[in-house]
Amino acid sequence: MKKGITFSALVVMLAIMLTLVTTAVISGVGAINNTTKMRFATELSYVQEVVNSYIDVDYEINFDKTYNINLSNASQDVKLQFVNENMVNSQVTLFEIDQNLEVLKNSDLTYGKKKIGDSQSEKDLDTFLYSATTGRVYYAKGLELNGKLYYTMTDELAEKIDYDYIYENDTNSSNIIFTKTTDEWTNSSISCQIKVPKIYNNINVSVSTDNKAVDYQNEGTAYYVYQIDVRQNCSIQVVYETSRNEIVKRNFDITNVDTIDPVLQVSNINSIFNSQTGTMNRNVQILEHYDNESGIKYLKYEKTEVPMDNIKAYFLNNGILLDSDSITIPDDVENVTIYIEDNAGNYVSIIK
User: Fold this and answer.
1) Does the reported pTM lie above 0.70?
2) Same-domain status, 61 and 104
């Protein structure tokens, strides 16, 4: 990865596409709800922390191309957001933040992501900008919230963010990358990977079970990586401290491990006289069958004794699905195998 923050050209007006300096006229976007407002403020804060962390460790910053914000027709509220910037002829010069920075490229930011299918002008505006004068981060497109335009972190936006609430309740938040081997039910271990950006301090990862294995590794310059193998349902909590000294908590729940066998109880083979046919009928009654974890996948039987060493594979594609609580056994059948399997792959079989 290239050392430092690099910036790419942002072309807004066709008439000046070949020039180094591009100009954007401030304009609003549609109103968004309060949840989106909180996410916008959170992402601004995150990108600001990323930029600050690169500056703090003395990375070289390359100002490749400039982006001019035209404030001549902006409202007073908007102008106040740029009040500490170096303004020349109602214009402020900013720089586009390189989206290929690893901690941004691998995140799921809603804003500042140039999307496939967008027009070039839309892509140009959907970017974060950096001020060399104040070090602040701005969003080129701007957001209109309740009739007011926001381009950077204002005091009002900052006050709206309850960091603990946002991060504890929003598992899609963009700062931490969480993956696991499967979302399907399983009776085996689940391997989870948690990648925490190195812009955070005092990181602590805890797991609410002793039935686990945790491995830590230092990956490149962007992330601390935690590899966690769990063998039962649990909660993984990540606690860290931001550069603004907020203590943030993120919870990730594992709820798809089931290592408990389903329940199956059956009667002995009973012989009942059939008065209509004048013959004896043999049957087995299903007394009880259930699974309180992953649920029953299927309940089957076969009119023979199925070998135990191959029983799961056999009933995968064979056997008779039970649609009642009684199995009728012909006189010429010596044994019957009853089989139940849950959605995690646990099973029980009984031979009568």
Assistant:
1) no
2) yes
